Amino acid sequence: MAILDCAIIGGGPAGLTAGLYTTRGGLKNVTMFEKGMPGGQIMNSSEIENYPGVTGEITGMDLMTPWPAQCQKFGLIHEMINIVRISKKDNLFTIHKEDGTTTDAHSVIIGTGSSPRRAGFAGESEFFGRGVSTCATCDGFFYKGKEVAVIGGGDTALEEALHLAKICSKVYLIHRRDTFRSAPNTVERIKNTENIELVLNSVPDEVYGDNMGVTGIRVKNNDGELRDIELPGVFTFVGNDVNNQALIQEDGSFLCEMNEAGQVIVDISMKTSVAGLYATGDMRIASPKQVVSAAGDGAVAALQTISYVDELLN
Ligand code: FAD
Ligand code: NAP
Q1: pLDDT for 47
Q2: Counting ligands in written order, which one lies closest to the CA of residue 140?
Q3: Cβ(133) to ligand 1 under 6 A?
Q4: Mind listing the pLDDT tens digit for each residue in 268-279?
Q5: With a 6 A CB cut-off, is 120 part of the ligand 2 pocket?
Q6: Are residues 244 and 112 in the same domain?
Q7: Domain containing 26: what range?
Q8: Among 83, 101, 167, 197, which has the minimal tally of Cβ within 10 Å of its Cβ?
Q9: What is the pTM (predicted TM-score) of this model?
């Protein structure tokens, strides 16, 4: 197989924008390795209202659906596969795929984003997929007219609680503190939504159920008092872990410099400590973790990559 000008790892807003700018900017062989459908984690969002120029009630899927076709028009190839490792020898990167095959590339733009974290309460893993979920868009409808719990106090938890409140009879928003890590207008909307009950200074002690799935949650407050709430659905939104596995080398070290949180260290051009490797979006240090900034990173990295490949090959 021919050596790629650029391999893009991850097909979220960062990877897709990198794909658009590298192909439209003249790079010839560019493949985006995305293990699932392109679009990234925003595809799971029931509402996005802060992407510039896009107004009205629009879901993450609505926003992202046109992006892959726009890239393909300029020649971007999407290979649907999980990348297990990226290595570099001399000036050549090797992309190691889950099926055991490899592809070589002159440059790499990585934007593998992040994945939902588990909260760590009893019953969470046992009932995951049987009443415990991390995706309101995917699973909210199963609880139409029923009561559900939402765990977390960030933007995701609050926005998804608002979405669930439209479908479900009642939402218990369970948060371990009494202030939220979320946009003020979102907090205001939560407080003004009649069927959302705030359960503050509290954490889930246990989620329990039977063969059919979840039947209830036991919540413990800061004074150690326990409260049982009967309900069939629990949604956890307690943050994300960086998807940096593809950067781990055979000896366990990382291909490039990372910080203690596992985020890739980049400069303002998205350059990593390794020449020809750029990191973008949620996985990089100091990321604002927004669709618009991930897309911006993808564009910056692509423009840098075009210059890098040009210099390398000419
Ligand atoms: P991601 O979107 O995480 O995409 C990474 C992609 O890489 C994924 O498609 C994944 O499948 C793929 N991948 C990972 N590892 C591999 C591998 N080893 N091999 C191949 N493919 C791989 N932002 C906003 O601006 N506004 C909002 O309203 C908003 N709402 C949100 C609501 C929810 C529920 C969530 C979860 C996030 C929300 N965000 C919002 C944040 C936004 O989704 C992210 O900042 C953005 O998606 C980051 O883009 P990314 O391209 O860096 O990574
Ligand atoms: P987050 O901001 O990290 O919030 C996670 C929440 O979960 C926090 O409230 C945290 O509590 C709580 N939490 C963490 N571990 C817990 C545990 N084990 N048990 C109980 N609660 C726990 O994560 P996020 O809400 O997913 O947001 C991630 C990023 O995406 C943020 O930068 C956010 O701004 C962005 N985002 C933006 C939008 C938007 O712009 N509209 C929408 C969604 C996400 P503490 O508060 O006590 O730490």
Answers
A1: 81
A2: 1
A3: no
A4: 999 999 999 999
A5: yes
A6: yes
A7: 6-116+240-313
A8: 101
A9: 0.87
